[in-house]
Every structure is written in structure tokens, then in C-alpha cells.
Amino acid sequence: MRFQHFLTLLSGLVECMFFAGVTFGWASLVFVLKNEKYFQDLCPSPGNQSINATDSCSQQDEQFSLIFTVAGLVNNFVTLPCGYIFDHFGTAVTRFLSISIYTAATILIALSNEETKAVSFISCVRSSLFWFHFIWLSVMQLRHYMFIATLNPTLTRLSGGDPLTVSHYTNVFAVSQFCGILCAPWNGIIIDRFKGKYKDSTADLHSCVVSLAITATQCMLFSISATLSILPAFYATFILQVLNRSFLYGGNAAFLSIA
């Protein structure tokens, strides 16, 4: 038991030696990042005079200070969820998660360089494409939520309060939800089918047009069918709802990955 305690202490010392340096050795890390020319494009370049990577630049220093501030806040904030995971799942799970997160971070750092131009979140929010897709998805998703929320009162009203009829249609609706797995691949097949018809740089976005149009048409037919005050019509409504839901979320994920 003492040997295990010694190994635990030794592993803790080794971890602190290698991993705590990111925070407490930040000054040395900044020197390395400046040599790698991170954020150097923010520094003014007077004429053709070259800039030493280690020279002071307020814009560059602000970015490094921001990174350290955010990292410090996150480091303190995750103490609570980390303690919860440690208490409920044990040391092995906690260490596995920490190793996975750290490995992912080092891979991202290794893949990044001073020429990497990542689109900022603010620029995405300001784009018209973002807002059109956001409204499009929100309206359709709200329509599905409203249908599910009002299904039981609607069935009760149309059946005259008959519990057997309400139970029957409720069971049909519940079973139909499992069919979404069968409908999910169709949207991807449509996107791949039309992707080969375009050869320009926007071919991937063009391939989503047909998918988005079909999804919008399905939602319109689903909404029309849901307004019919005929109980047998709800069989078609359930089919359209499942089909449209699969196209909606599948198409949304495909569009986000492409856009």
C-alpha cells in the first residue's frame, strides 16, 4: 500500500512538472509563440523593415494576455465539474478525460500556424447566410415542437374524448418516431447525388439547395396535413412529421459542415 502511495505521489509530481508549466511558465511559452510568429500580422510593419518576432507589440501582447486570462478563468471554473466527475466516476475516468482534452489541445496547437486564417464567430453571426439559416431552422423546429405539444389535446378534441381512440393514435405516433432512423440517410444521398453536378468552388453549397427545398416543401405539406380536422389524416401527418424531422436535422448538420 505504501508503494502505491509513493507511485501516486510520484505521478502527481511528474504531472505538475510537465503540465503546470503551461500556466506558471506562460512567460517562457509566450517567447516561443512569438518566435513562431503567432498574431504577428496584427503588428504594424513600417515600410520594408522586418519585425523581430520577439519585439514588443501591443496588439500581439493583448492577444496573448487575452488567451492567458481566458485560460486562467476556465482553469478555476472547471474545478467544480472536475470534482463532481472525480467523486462520482473515480480517478480513472477523470484522468482519461483530462488526458483526452490535453491531447486534443496539443494536436490543435500542432496543426495551427501563423498563416491559419480562422473565421471568427462574430463574422459568422454578421453574415446573412447565418441569419437566413437560423430563421429557417428555428421556424421549422418550432413547428415540430408545437405539433408534439398540442397533439394530445387535438386528438382528444377530434375523438370526442374517446380514450381508446386517443391511445391508438398516440401509440401510432410513438411507433412512427422510431422510423426516423430509416429516413435519415435519404437526405445525405440527395446531397451526394447533386454534389457531382457542380464543378466550381461552391459545389458543396449548391448541393444543399435541393435538400433545403425538399425539407421546406415537406414542412409545408406536414403543416397543411396537421390542420385537417380528420382523424385518419393523422396517419399521413405522422409520416410527414418523421420524414421532415429527419431531413431537417440531417440537412442542418450537413449544411453547417459545408458552410
UniProtKB/TrEMBL annotation:
SUPFAM superfamilies given in the database record: MFS general substrate transporter
A GO cellular-component term linked to this record: membrane
Subcellular location(s) per record: Membrane
Keyword annotations: Membrane, Transmembrane, Transmembrane helix
Transmembrane stretches, start-end: 6-33, 66-86, 92-111, 118-137, 172-191, 212-235
Membrane topology of the entry: Multi-pass membrane protein
Protein name (record): Solute carrier family 43 member 3 isoform X4
Organism: Pelobates cultripes (Western spadefoot toad)
